[in-house]
Specification:
about 200 residues; alpha+beta; 3-stranded antiparallel beta sheet; 8 helices
Length: about 200
Amino acid sequence: MSGKDLIKEQFDKLVSITPADWLYFSERLQFKQFGKKDRITQADRVEDNLYFLAHGVVRFIVHNEEKETTTDFSFSGHFFCSYSSFITRQPGIFEIRPVTKTASCYYISWNDLQQVYANTNCGEKIGRMAAEQQFIRKSDREVSLLTIHPKDRYLQLMEEQPQWIHQIPLKHLASYLGITPETLSRIRSSIMKSNG
């Protein structure tokens, strides 16, 4: 299945889209492959693109006093961007980079997306649903950090993304879980022992 087909599949879960509306949208999509050292989005800049990750894993990073914290991951088959910056047109706090060797992305610019909103029957609905998904994802992440033990969060990530979990460096996973790499090593060892 091509990257554009994956996007169409995601849309079909949200809203019925006519062939004409899909054509109008898909003609505005661009493709880019990012390497591991590339910055997809830079902090302190306005986010101009909404991305769809066709293949790979990317991480959201916040820099603070010479320390970087991984706040989130996005996996194949999902839309991502520095969403608050994309919506408000203000500089964002996130840097987004690939975790995997490459990240294959389709993207649409903010300006082109406004044209989709204005000139298709379902554009506004797609925009609203995308915003709701971002909000739910952010809320779930906050609740998870406050209420779920790191070991259970790691197990949940293993269950949801088994094909990618071993490609994410330990230090990034630990940062995402809010624990030290040493603690995560102990968690992984205990899981292996209990599964062995």
